[in-house]
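Try it yourself: sequence plus manganese (II) ion, in.
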Amino acid sequence: MLLLLAERMKVKEFITKKPFVIAGPCSAETEEQTIEIAKAVEDVADVFRAGIWKPRTNPNSFEGVGLKGIDWLKSIKQETSLKVATEIANAKHVDICLSAGVDVLWIGARTTVNPFYVQEIAKALQGVDIPILVKNPIHPELGLWLGAFERLMNAGITQIGAIHRGFYSYEKSVFRNNPKWEIPIRLREEFREIPIICDPSHIAGHTSLIKEISQTAMDLNFDGLMIETHLDPSIALSDADQQLTPKEFSSIIKNLILREENLNNTIITQKLSEFRLKIDLLDKKIIKLLHDRNEIVKNIAEFKKENRITIFQLERWFEILRTRKKTGKNLELDLQMIAELFELIHKYSIVTQTQIMHR
Ligand code: PEP
Ligand code: MN
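Structure, out:
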């Protein structure tokens, strides 16, 4: 259904170069600050960003300068070569931005979660031909993100892009928002023509991780980056820990290693095919091993059934997890990957055993 929709509603390309770079402060704070940052990023960025209506978790936080910030964005358009972008969260914001000539709009993560708001915004944007970027919803639910694109496409909007800003998680992590790269990759599978821009600032939550996340986004063939930039991040009124100075920002962008998706060089493609062949063979072996393991699981289930033993034994599960992690550690594998892999294997072992027990 979604694929059919994407085919029908042709998405129009608005990315003028790769990486397409959006930079600017989390929030517009004063007129001078906003214009000065724009001038400082002008050489490297394509679009200037600044939030003027800020959705904050805590009502006592700085909630943006509001309407007067719009005039500052207009001045930037006059004084620099940059296009300007801001976050919109309702139809009123859309109307204000459209009459002021804001070039690019984005829907924030806290708005994407609410279909009522997305629908209201889509309606207000009907017949408008400017790029609309949709941030992923706060929690890792691809369906909500896809739904937002579908609502915009249904309203006839053709210049659509995605912003991957990571996902909230209760688990302790080095990231402010877990990148869960598999989700934007799934988005790409669903809507090939929608460009994806990574927002390393909100994923990282801290300046030290921004370079690495930006490079990962490029390695995964993302189309662009949105990076928060401030003249003096330490005194920023919002997201102080994650904003880069214009100099740090420029250095990261200039030092990105860019790769080609499809190489025309036959020697390189041949070598890549050789690696892929090896991977294909190994994956076949993994599947055969899973089959062999499952045969033993079935034997165990029959045995437990005859002897009236429960399927699940906590101690045995802990032992599996501990010993597999130890083996993985010796081979320098990612322990989180080992844990997740065996949780999945164990989950289906229980499914198989339950089916046999109930026969
Ligand atoms: C922002 O871009 O400043 C912002 C509020 O981001 P998000 O919606 O991703 O939290
Ligand atoms: Mn921010």
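One thing you can check immediately is this: The mean pLDDT is 94.
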